[in-house]
Amino acid sequence: MIEEFRVYELYPGKLEAFKERFEKYSKPIFARHGIELLGFWEVGEYPKDAKPQVSEGGTVKPAVGSKFGIDRFAYMVRFKSLEQRDAAWQAFVKDDEWLARRAESEVDGALVASEHTTLLLPVQE
User: Does any domain span residue 125?
Assistant: First the structure.
């Protein structure tokens, strides 16, 4: 199994449009192409004055007062193999419905400013 964590930096004010497109269109198209969605989230930002608290047991950064709704979105997906992952994404980005829905949702401008992808390999005991 391979998991993939994606974080999207959105253009200002585009979070709600992105969430709507993801829920209505991305999710079902993912399923059609064998992209198993594990979860999706708004990405928060720690308070600017949050100072890490370091102890001999580790470091904790206080999260009370964190801000959400800041035009960041993340999701995690799973694949059976790297080969299946590559084939699924190739099919997704060429999917006629995805291309149409993406174009419709971006008639007033692009939603995504940048994205970051991290591949994860589960650790076996």
Answer: no
Q: 123 by DSSP, 3-state: which? A: coil
- The predicted-structure confidence for 24-69, as pLDDT tens digits, reads as follows 999 999 999 999 999 999 999 888 888 888 888 998 887 888 898 8
The Cα–Cα gap between 89 and 81 comes to 12
Q: Which residue has the tokens 């497109």?
A: 21
In a domain, 33, yes or no: yes
The strand pairing partners of 58, in sequence order, are 55
Query: CA geometry: angle at 48 spanning 55 and 113, to 5°?
Result: 120
> In the Cβ-directed half-sphere of 67, how many Cα atoms lie within 13 Å?
9
Prediction pTM value: 0.87
